[in-house]
Amino acid sequence: MKFKTLMLIKAVVCLALGIPVLLMPRFLYGIFGVNLGEAGVYPAWEYGASLIGNCLLTWFARYARESKGRRALIKGMTFYNGIGVIVTLIAVLTGVMNLFGLGIIVIYLFFTLGFGYFWVKPPVP
Prior knowledge:
This protein is mainly α. About 80% of the residues lie in helices and about 0% in strands.
């Protein structure tokens, strides 16, 4: 897979999830068996903002050539998505999320492996 393609997929996924998290967090989290309550809506909005930020970052940087900035983005995205795998796995295993959370784990794992590939792949001169 090309770097540009991975970045485009990440942008689309973040947009597709970020907008519903911002506009209807209780409904979206409810699908995953999570009851946000009053105190949970604000962190959900923050996460939605993070997803939109990731969307814009990956969209605007999709044509980035090999550079220190591109390497930093790749490393950051690898860690971000790797942490997402761990946190979501814990949420599913402890019953905070239902089994639909496994789909979120698959998404995070896809991006962890995708960005991890570009991290270990030797840079093109």
